[in-house]
Design a protein that fits this description.
Elements lengths: L6 E4 L2 E4 L23 H15 L11 H4 L4
Antiparallel strand pairs: 1-2
Length: 73
């Protein structure tokens, strides 16, 4: 049976996030890779937000006054 789980390292010891589906003393083969803290989509969104903070996009059009925006007829 092949199972994929996530775990955290505490003082050099792996602590699984969920209980393992194996009996005690079962030998297993481990492949360990760090879990990405950001998904590629979230990383792209954060880069875009940072870019917009550095160089805001302005419409360049006429700026209406409050009275023009809320004109009542």
């Amino acid at each position: 049976m092949k199972t994929e789980i996530t775990a955290i390292v505490v003082n050099g010891v792996l602590k699984p996030d969920t209980a393992l589906p194996f009996a005690d003393q079962t030998r297993v083969k481990l492949t360990i890779e760090p879990v990405e803290s950001e998904t590629p989509a979230l990383a792209a969104w954060n880069r875009l937000k940072e870019r917009l903070r550095q160089r805001p996009v302005h419409g360049g059009g006429k700026r209406f006054t409050r009275e023009e925006l809320h004109e009542r007829r």
